[in-house]
Design brief:
Helices cover 33% and strands 25% of the residues. It is an alpha/beta fold and 335 residues long. The chain folds into 2 domains: 117 residues, Rossmann fold, CATH 3.40.50; 189 residues, 2-Layer Sandwich (Dihydrodipicolinate Reductase, domain 2), CATH 3.30.360. The strands form 2 sheets. It has an 8-stranded mixed β-sheet with strand order 8-9-10-7-11-12-13-14. Strands 3-2-1-4-5-6 form a 6-stranded parallel β-sheet, sandwiched between helices. Helix 3 runs parallel beside helix 4 and helix 9 packs across helix 11. It is globular and about 60 Å long.
């Protein structure tokens, strides 16, 4: 039996919503019909000539929309998603899934009542570089993983925060570089390393310690995993440019590392192999990754088939909880 066309809407019509709209408009059996933003001009711009506009997201609750995308400030993700689930909607949410453990628990309680209806945008899991590393690890090319390291060094100056006033405030953003920019790279590191048994971390505000900004611009973390594997993680918004993301896995038989859109495999005593992967697909900034459309299409495929979605709330729990542990470790040290 053919699935009916899904009516979709977007709440929050800023920059990332443009990527969601682009992906949805390229999909068959999906009609992007509704756009909500407190700034109705922004909603009208995203809608173009088609779609209905509103400035109160609650209008979506009683609508005939099937799937709703949440692209709002971070602190609204969990409460909006929980209410929309209660109203019978399927919900696709930008990262992060929540900004506090309490929000996560409340959302979990609602998700358990409506299984298979909630998904999150961790698009870098679908990047070609990620799929290449998946294959290398799965085939045992580098052997058992002994350690990993990752680095994100990007540029966010004061004007970035003044343009979006909810950013730079822990109450509405939940944190800084870790929960906003570097969460995707931490997610990939944990994808291969697993759940850390030990987390020790520190944060700093090296260059954004100005009025109105109370989140970190730099974070470092050391993690240990079952079996003794260990990882080093570093992220900063205090660099001079948006540099390529770096991720490395060290195994017993060699190592594999990603630098931007290139993957290199170095097996012991052999010539390194280099793979140049697709770095961008569609619209959006290069460093957002190229997996948005694949990530969104997979969510809709799972809605239709009933298959489990990899970016479910349970599927992103490990990453969220590790973010909370990193912040908790830094706070214990007085950072």
């Amino acid at each position: 039996m053919k699935e009916k066309r899904k009516k979709t809407g977007i709440i929050g019509c800023g920059g990332i919503a443009q990527v969601h709209a682009w992906a949805l408009r390229s999909m068959r059996d999906v009609d992007l019909e509704a756009f909500c933003d407190v700034d109705t001009d922004r909603a009208k711009t995203l809608a173009g000539e088609n779609g209905w506009i509103c400035d109160d997201w609650r209008e979506f609750c009683d609508s005939d929309l099937d799937v709703i995308h949440i692209c709002t400030p971070h602190h609204l993700h969990a409460p909006m998603a929980a209410e929309l689930l209660r109203r019978g909607k399927a919900v696709f949410v930008e990262k992060p899934c929540a900004i506090t453990a309490a929000q996560f628990e409340e959302l979990t309680a609602e998700d358990e009542k409506h299984p298979g209806r909630l998904g999150f945008c961790f698009q870098n899991r679908y990047n070609e570089t990620t799929l290449r590393i998946d294959k290398i690890v799965r085939e045992g090319t580098i052997g058992r993983i002994l350690g990993g390291r990752a680095a994100v060094t990007w540029k966010r100056d004061e004007d970035y925060y003044s343009f979006s006033p909810w950013k730079g405030k822990k109450e509405t953003e939940g944190g800084g570089v870790l929960i906003n920019q570097a969460i995707h790279t931490l997610d990939l590191l944990l994808k291969y390393m697993g759940e850390p048994t030990v987390v020790k971390a520190g944060t700093a505000d090296h260059h954004l310690n100005c009025a109105g900004i109370d989140v970190e611009d730099t974070v470092e973390a050391w993690m240990e995993f079952q079996g003794g594997a260990r990882a080093c993680f570093y992220a900063s918004n205090a660099y001079a440019a948006d540099a390529p993301v770096f991720l490395e896995l060290q195994g017993e038989l060699g190592r594999v590392y990603m630098n931007g859109s290139e993957v290199t495999v170095c097996k012991n005593e052999t010539v390194p192999e280099h793979f140049l992967c697709e770095g961008k697909k569609g619209i959006g900034k290069d460093y957002w990754g190229c997996g948005h459309r694949d990530c969104i299409e997979d969510f809709y495929r799972c809605l239709d088939s009933g298959a489990p979605y990899v970016n479910s709330l349970e599927g992103v729990r490990r990453t969220f909880m590790t973010v909370m542990r990193i912040y908790g470790s830094a706070a214990e040290k007085g950072y």
